[in-house]
Amino acid sequence: MAVIAFKVRLYPNQKQISQMSRTFGSTRFVWNQMLAMQNERYKNNPQAKYQNNYAMNLMLKPLKAEYPWLKDVDSTALQATNDHLHDAFQRFFDPELENGHPKFKSKKDYAQSYTTKAVNQNIKVIDNHHLKLPKLGHVYFRAGRILNGKIKRVTVRINAQGQYYATILLESEKQAFKPKDKTNQVVGIDLGLDDLMILSNGQKVNMMHFDLEAKQQVRIWERKMARRRRNAQKEMAFDKHEKLLLPRTSLKQFPRYQQARHTVAKLKRQVSERRYDRLQKLTTQLVQNYDVIVVEKLNTQGMLKNRHLARAISNAGWGKLVTMLKYKCDWYGKQLIFVDPKNTSRICHQCGQKNHQFDSLNQHEWLAVREWDCPTCGTHLNRDINASQNILHRGLAQIEKEKVLV
Ligand SMILES: [Zn+2]
């Protein structure tokens, strides 16, 4: 049994569009109400028990009685909102994650979404181009291929450019993918900043500098967008001051500002699509070539605190890369192993001894050391390749240990 997600572009009609925006509004309202309730409870009594998603679902009934328009939208979407808020609180409570407190949602955000849960066949793929969604009926979509399976939930989304998408999550009986042939090859991967990855066989994969290429364009258009927004705000203030009969009151009435906003959103989307595409290709190749892949356990939350590293990390998309590797290894019957990255650069992969020559260096100086000779065995070591070989050794040792335990 595999859980698979498909993203499809939706082409809703006018009636469906207005129903969708009602649902975006209602789920946002429920999110903000529930969040305010949790905050208020805590403020009044810090010992008060946090209300989980089931408790919040029970509160939907009185909320609907007070605000009857909530009954006009898909009720599973309101429950899914409580689930999401609950998840956000769980991440916030988890000391390891160091996530921030859940935030209120604003209707000013151009991108909006809601999730609808499957109950009694209310969601169905009708044919290659029609998806049945609660309260919306048959929505036209375009996509390559959607596998048959039991739909769990669908997230409907409008992006900053005003395009609609649905992410369909389904459980498939069939194994969606044939296991890849065994290659009897193993690899350790060091995730780096100068290079995206260094493999234990010495191969390097370059950093993705898409955002540097596109950065110039994005910056030009962001400046235009800011200037046009300022001008629009001035004109709105002028209309108000002059007491015009029909004053302009919304940024939506300024097409040139909207055009700049769309361009910025488009450029940013292009960067992320290209990045995603590259990661897809890289991870497929790795899963094809190796039976066992060893990577370090990531602690991205901790690292993001270091502001200099943060940009490089978000560019590299390590987290995404590891997630892709994880599900592809599952799909194709390969093994992904996580190891503790501690000291993987300082220990010699030949003799296993830690090099204490660098103990006095600070983080910055230490990062600048690229090559050295091991003081114990004399092996010439390259920082990154040494690390990836240590990662591989640790992974293989872990497999051995598990075999002994079994
Ligand atoms: Zn050595």
Automatic annotation (TrEMBL):
Organism classification: Bacteria, Bacillati, Bacillota, Bacilli, Lactobacillales
Protein family per UniProt: In the N-terminal section; belongs to the transposase 2 family. In the C-terminal section; belongs to the transposase 35 family.
Keyword set, alphabetical order: DNA recombination, DNA-binding, Metal-binding, Transposition, Zinc
Protein name: Transposase
Native source species: Ligilactobacillus pabuli
Transposase putative helix-turn-helix domain residues: 4-45
InterPro entries, sorted: Cas12f1-like_TNB, RNA-guided_DNA_endo/Transpos, Transposase, Transposase_put_HTH
Pfam family, one: HTH_OrfB_IS605
Domain Probable transposase IS891/IS1136/IS1341: 171-306
All copies of domain Cas12f1-like TNB, residue ranges: 318-391
Keyword Plastid recorded: no
